[in-house]
TrEMBL record:
SMART domains: AAA (SM00382). This is ABC transporter ATP-binding protein. Residues 3-230 form the ABC transporter domain. PANTHER family: ABC TRANSPORTER ATP-BINDING PROTEIN ALBC-RELATED (PTHR42939:SF1). It holds the Pfam family ABC_tran.
Amino acid sequence: MELIIKDVVKTFDDKVILDEASFQFEKGKIYGLLGRNGAGKTTLFNCISKDLSIDSGTIQLEEDMEAYDFSDLDVGLVHATPTLPDFMTGYEFIKFFIDMNKEKMPNVRTPDEYLAKVGIKKEDRHRLLKDYSHGMKNKVQMIATMMVQPPVLLLDEPLTSFDVVAAHEMKELILSIKKDSVVIFSTHILQLAQDLCDEIVVLHKGKLTGFDPNKIHTNSFEADIVAMLSDEEGKPQDAVVEVIGESDDE
């Protein structure tokens, strides 16, 4: 299975965010999406998940050489800022999610098993979600999305709010799902991209460009990425990755 993005254009007022962007993402690989602040990474994710309409072009899945349109139910999008019901406990939310989606879930487990998988402690599972930390909310959001094993999994700035142990647990979870899904995550942390990614895709000036996979683990990786995101040769611009500048909303 492949996710095919072809000649996608998306504008807001007079600003072109995606300019005939094209790329082919394969199941079984983890893709890191890198770009400058405001490049349109979140916009691209919202277009793939059908939260935003595109102006022109196509976004389709392809299997056995047959391209087809897909529904928003085929895409799992983990937002950088979790949106969860404040009035439910972590346990209640996961139980509700299981009840609503069990027909789509290949191996249904108990709420406790799912929450344990992302390191939510027993004493926290029956607390209201409104009292969870940002990192805990992110864990609940991520496990809920992964439980249904969607064909396409989009992770918008994952792991940034996790401590070292939790980040390791989530990395293992992401790796475990890639064999059945197209996995794309945006990040400003180059080390994370190097650790997790099979391929890197750069979004710059509205275009999607693949990065040579053979160079991901070389000493020149950071410099090569900065060069790709520079407006002028030899003059890298602001905020490419975490070590250069902090991310902001797109």
